[in-house]
Inverse folding.
């Protein structure tokens, strides 16, 4: 089990980045959440099998069609025992 806190910067709000992230994470069988941050970044908490988390981190660097990702920063986090992957507001 691997858990990470993620901060994605660039043009990542208003381009369906959160919905795309939820779809990708669910497809990989990951749990967690994603939300827009006030500073224009997107934040997430992701947990699951190490290889699946690593695959998502790789995909986040590209993002959906209209996103322009500058950086994906991941920091180790404590697993929260979440089930499912949701979009959090604010």
């Amino acid at each position: 089990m691997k858990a990470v806190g993620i901060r994605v910067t660039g043009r990542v709000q208003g381009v369906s980045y959160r919905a795309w992230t939820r779809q990708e994470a669910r497809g990989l069988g990951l749990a967690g959440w994603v939300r827009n941050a006030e500073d224009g970044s997107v934040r997430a908490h992701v947990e699951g099998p190490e290889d699946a988390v690593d695959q998502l981190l790789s995909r986040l660097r590209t993002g959906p069609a209209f996103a322009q990702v500058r950086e994906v920063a991941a920091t180790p986090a404590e697993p929260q025992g979440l089930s499912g992957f949701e979009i959090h507001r604010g």
